[in-house]
Amino acid sequence: MRIAFNRPTMKIPLYCDSIGYDWNQPPIHRLNGYYAYHWLQTESGMGMGMVNLDHQHILLKRNQGILCRPRVPHEYHPTGSEPWKVSFLSFDGTIANDMVHFLKLNQFLLVQAVSPELTAFIPQTFNQFKPNDNLSLPDQSIQIYKFIMLLKQNELLNTKQFQSSTITSPILAYISNHFAEPISNQDLSKVTSYSVTYQNRVFKRLFKMTPLEYLNQYRMKKAKELLLTNAALEVHEVGIKVGFHDTSHFIDQFKKFYQTTPSHFRKYI
């Protein structure tokens, strides 16, 4: 599905030149580049591209994308046995240069991991770009602004310093201080001020597990320490101290983690 427009006659902050998704991308060779900013993202299959035609090959796999400045020479073509299906958005406008400066865009911006929100943007807003009249242009301009902000958010999502300072570090600190208490995803969301879905995705990308999986692992390690260093504590007391008020559940989780029961661990380890 694809929509292409003529340039608007009125000056507009941001306007859409073309937009599409689920598009079988043919080979493209632009010696003089494209006259607008152009975003291209792989939905399935793969494509090979070159920017500036300097033989710097760029492979665009699924959920990867590239944003090119206007007039930057480039070419791309499908590669592999599958069709190369893409989504794309080209745009320009009176504030376009200032907006992409916010993205630190040089000649092109390669995005190695596109967020689900950014992936969903074009299919979800496609119908809003169908009207081709002056009354629709302001709303379409707002949508393109949102798209650029999603690109910036995507950059932050993939920045480990941002992830650590705003999401993972507060979660780790909270678990360390409150692991003996009931902890839910909603509790952690209040700590980070981000949605559960967003914070869990960031955390899992960095630690290869969800915050609650990390919490369970942390509790198991603390349980092992208590079993080895506090012989006077009963098994159920150890469970309570690490956040388990159901002894059977504590024993079950400990056995899954260490392949033995707490009592057997204390006796033979």
Automatic annotation (TrEMBL):
UniProt keyword annotation of Transferase present: no
SUPFAM superfamilies: Homeodomain-like (SSF46689), Regulatory protein AraC (SSF51215)
Pfam families in the cross-refs: AraC_binding, HTH_18
InterPro entries for this protein: AraC-bd, Homeodomain-like_sf, HTH-like, HTH_AraC, HTH_AraC-typ_CS, Tscrpt_reg_AraC-type_HTH
Domain HTH araC/xylS-type: 169-268
Keywords: DNA-binding, Transcription, Transcription regulation
Cited Gene3D superfamilies: Homeodomain-like
GO molecular function, one term: sequence-specific DNA binding
Superkingdom per UniProt: Bacteria
Protein's recorded name: AraC family transcriptional regulator
Natural source organism: Lentilactobacillus kefiri
Upper lineage: Bacteria, Bacillati, Bacillota, Bacilli, Lactobacillales
